[in-house]
Design goal:
The chain is α/β, with parallel strands linked by helices. It has 13 helices and 26 strands. It has a 5-stranded mixed beta sheet with strand order 18-19-17-2-26. Strand 24 (about 375-380), helix 12 and strand 25 form a beta-alpha-beta unit. Helix 5 (about 165-175) packs parallel to helix 6. The longest helix is centred in the N-terminal third of the chain and has 13 residues, at about 20-35.
């Protein structure tokens, strides 16, 4: 599946239910491994990244089985086992950053390794605060592999310079093992799955504006939960539906956490008709059904907190921007440069390959509207979101598009191409 051919579509119609949210799946699995009792999770993410988390937890002594399609994780009550080999995080920055927080509080040394892409991503953002708390972490000039020697941790107040839910979660997880309180004060509020997951497993955690605080020494209790559908995966289908005037798409059981649902506001502002129905709370997370019907697409400017909240969805929004009336401008998204690929550069290169005009900035890009894309050969750069984003752009292009490295989609969404074909009309 290294190459996938995407043919132009006429419409997007149908009803789908997506695999479990990747962000929640990572966090639930990690907390389950240090909780008391057996946690049972339904609709766990099918992506390779979350499989990397489960593999690392098994290497740390957690008993994990998959009876009847659910994941069962037997907790180790805070005390993981020293691994006999390096912990392979694969392509998953979430695994490496958040698990490091738990390993910082263990009384042994662990080595975390990853693939070539993960080994290029910045890790100082967790190394520095975890070291200040009392862990000892060595790295390759701030990159993986990481060698984490756990120790007696001390709580502290930390103000990260870059808004990052992974960094916040890593420090809150470390705070469970620290003496006193640990607080993270964010420059911009990021997704709150870590806080909600900790509360779900029984931890007390408080928020005062952009500061989140946890007290050390708390014991977690196992849970049973169904994980809502991944809204970052839904973004590709929602953007696809927004491109066709007669489309009608329904997504059931979707995560609707307000810190993740900014995409719905942007699509509505662009002109799509978005409705949320049957919304309910599940372990602190909101989930429900989304319906989307296309409208006349205008344009948007994203910056500041909005760019931070949409960091995963910006590639697909940029890929659909040529088909809007006024285009898309994105600023304050420098974080895209240090993802699985340099996503700003990758989006710009691939849009130009399809015949679009694009202006690239250090912290974003500008894509004029009113453009017609041509089928082309797309380089995913081994990045799952680039592969999927340009599959959506290809649906409205003239002629066929070849996505090289399409297998990258397996990192977060192995079923993507099959499910996309299920709602496309030609």
């Amino acid at each position: 599946m290294s190459d996938v051919i995407v043919k132009p579509a006429r419409n997007i119609v149908g009803s789908i239910r997506l695999p479990g949210d990747k962000s929640i799946s990572h966090r639930y699995a990690m907390l389950a491994a240090i909780a008391e009792g057996t946690t049972r999770l339904r609709n766990f993410s099918s992506g390779a990244d979350c499989a990397s988390t489960l593999g690392c937890l098994r290497s740390l002594g957690a008993q994990i089985t998959a009876p009847d399609g659910e994941i069962a994780i037997e907790g180790l009550v805070g005390a993981l086992h020293e691994p006999s080999a390096a912990l392979d995080c694969g392509n998953s920055g979430s695994t490496m950053r958040m698990l490091s927080g738990i390993l910082a509080g263990q009384q042994f040394t662990s080595e975390l390794v990853g693939d070539q892409s993960l080994s290029r991503r910045p890790m100082r953002r967790i190394i520095e605060p975890l070291t200040q708390m009392g862990a000892s972490i060595s790295s390759q000039d701030g990159h993986a592999p990481l060698r984490v020697r756990g120790g007696k941790l001390r709580g502290m107040v930390y103000k990260p310079s870059v808004p990052s839910a992974q960094v916040k979660t890593s420090l809150l997880f470390a705070g469970l093992f620290a003496e006193g309180e640990t607080s993270v004060e964010e420059p911009l509020r990021t997704r709150d799955h870590g806080e909600l997951a900790l509360r779900t497993f029984g931890a007390e955690i408080s928020r005062d504006k952009n500061r989140v605080t946890i007290r050390g020494g708390q014991r977690l209790k196992a849970i049973e939960a169904a994980i809502p559908g991944d809204i970052s995966s839904a973004a590709f289908f929602l953007c696809a539906a927004a491109l066709f005037p007669e489309s009608n798409l329904v997504i059931d059981g979707l995560l609707l956490n307000p810190t993740r649902a900014v995409l719905l506001d942007v699509l509505a502002a662009l002109g799509a008709r978005v409705r949320m129905i049957q919304v309910e709370e599940q372990h602190g997370e909101l989930a429900g059904t989304i319906t989307l019907e296309a409208g006349s697409l205008k344009g948007a400017k994203l910056a500041g907190a909005q760019s931070a909240a949409l960091i995963d969805e910006i590639p697909v929004l940029a890929a659909m921007a040529p088909y809007t009336r006024d285009g898309l401008e994105v600023r304050d998204a420098r974080e895209l440069r240090v993802k699985e690929s340099d996503r700003i550069a990758a989006v710009a290169r691939n849009l130009r390959a399809m015949g679009a005009k694009v202006e690239e900035y250090e912290d974003g890009l500008s894509v004029p509207g009113g453009q017609q894309l041509q089928g082309a050969e797309i380089d995913s750069e081994h990045d799952h979101r680039i592969a999927m984003a340009f599959s959506i752009a290809a649906l409205r292009a003239t002629g066929e598009t070849v996505i090289h490295g399409a297998e990258a989609a397996q990192i977060s969404f192995p079923e993507f191409f099959r499910m996309l074909e299920g709602v496309v009309e030609r």
